[in-house]
Amino acid sequence: MAARKIVEGVYWVGAVDWDRRIFDEVIPLPDGTSYNSYLVKGSEKIALIDTVDPTKTNELIGNLKEVGVKKIDYIIANHAEQDHSGSIPEMLKRHPEAKVVTNEKCRGMLIDLLHVPAEKFIVVENHGTLSLGDKTLEFILAPWVHWPETMFTYIKEDKILFTCDLFGSHLATSDLYAKDESKVLEAAKLYYATIMMPFKTLIRNHIKTIDSIDVQIIAPSHGPLYDKPQFILNAHREWASDKVENAVVIPYVSMHASTHAMVCHLSDALTKRGVKVYQFNLMKTDAGKLAVASMDAATIVIATPTFLGGPHPTVAYAAMLLNALKPKTKYVAVINSYGWASKTPEQIAALTPAINAENIGAVSVKGHPTEKDYAALDALSDTIARKHREAEIVN
Ligand code: FEO
């Protein structure tokens, strides 16, 4: 994708990765992604804000040539993860005079991950500034979105905030700005669910910081930019809030139809009680869909057969993933079919200690469910509906 001008002296020089389908070998990318790198030409100095994934270094080099860059004075590293920092070594080879400008933590990580020489750095503090002549960069530390070293860079004169991964979307598009808002919102929500969800409390604080700054453009490191910043800020305000939906997510695997029969009965029972259901056969869905549904659901019911004494391995994987993503769910339960003996509910609980939710019990059935077992699932539905009502979760 060719370089594009954002405002006078500020250019997008990144790369669009139309074909990438997985990130961190776990996150599905149905719509590809982009690695946004930005060039800021001041009257005296030139800065590159973040680079691109090392697989796309040649595209970055081509875009820098296109905008006539012969010399780079500063490479600003907002984040050490390799999809943004991975081309720094090649940039330093081509521009040996350049300094890498970042915070102390990010410096350490770039030395560890990319072996950037220690003497190449200029270390900045929170709200430190760097003059490029007629443009001034301000650095705002924004830890844990989603690594400990993350920071924002703000061009004071142009009121552009570069937020690295925060507010990003894995969306390959030729649009510089978010034009198709429903498409961008879907991609941004998937991105938030799979990357940012564990950090919701910190995100609320970062949004408060941004609210205190005059921002006209938000320029993240993945997906389109936002020339109407409130669009994406408001979406994140809602996603990071404590508000949950009157809904139950049921991730499940069934080997011989017994767990499936339990899941179907529970889904019907909940629906009859006015509770929305998101049912995921883990053999047919992907981690992204499960993560998005789990973002707002008040309850998660994990359903699994017992497989060699524990949860089915695919269910164990989903449980560990949910534990890592820390959804804001309020209640959790397990339903389980077993053949001769089972400690499966306890094992699921042991896999999900970081989900800060009330355990409202388990329905564990020997073999295929009977009328008595369906009655137990009805009772679980009653409990869920009552808990939601009592907590005033009615939307
Ligand atoms: Fe897009 Fe955390 O890297």
Structure description:
With 395 residues, this protein is an alpha/beta fold. It has 2 domains: 4-239, 4-Layer Sandwich (Metallo-beta-lactamase, Chain A); 245-387, 3-Layer(aba) Sandwich (Rossmann fold). The protein is built from 12 helices and 22 strands. The protein has helices at 57-66, 82-85, 88-94, 104-114, 181-196, 200-211, 229-239, 258-272, 287-296, 313-325, 344-351, 371-390; strands at 4-7, 10-12, 15-17, 22-23, 27-28, 33-35, 38-41, 46-49, 74-76, 99-102, 121-123, 129-131, 136-141, 151-155, 160-164, 217-220, 245-252, 276-281, 297-307, 310-311, 331-338, 358-366. A 7-stranded mixed beta sheet has the order 1-2-7-8-9-10-11. Strands 17, 18, 19, 20, 21 and 22 form a 6-stranded mixed beta sheet that branches. Strands 12-13-14-15-16 form a 5-stranded mixed beta sheet, with no helix packed on it. Strand 10 (99-102), helix 4 (104-114) and strand 11 form a beta-alpha-beta unit. Helix 8 (258-272) packs across helix 12 (371-390). The chain binds MU-OXO-diiron. MU-OXO-diiron binds next to helix 2.
